[in-house]
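Comment thread on ticket #2218

A.B. wrote:
> Attaching the input chain for the structure job we discussed in standup.
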Amino acid sequence: MKRQILIALLAAGIGATVAVAAGVFAGPVAPTADRAQSAFQPDTSSPRWKALTDDVGVWLRDDERLGLRGRLFVRMDGTWHAVATDGAGDVLAIIPAK
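C.D. wrote:
> Ran it. Output below, let me know if you need it in another format.
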């Protein structure tokens, strides 16, 4: 009898854990670097802007905690979109840097 109760409690615990994990993974998605920085449009006339081609460039910045940072941008339909970062410091909302 005790064994059946223990098995039932264990199954309920595993089921609850799976349900919570599924809810966490199916919940709101954390913003990607592109969505988090989509409002930022680099000033292409700035000395911080390094154009690689007409539609690709790198925006450089000096972060006081993390040092020199760079972000790769691609222009699509006249709007610049961040497509790559050089480290976790550029996506602090997603990955803590410390």
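A.B. wrote:
> Thanks. Noting for the ticket: The longest strand covers residues 67-76.
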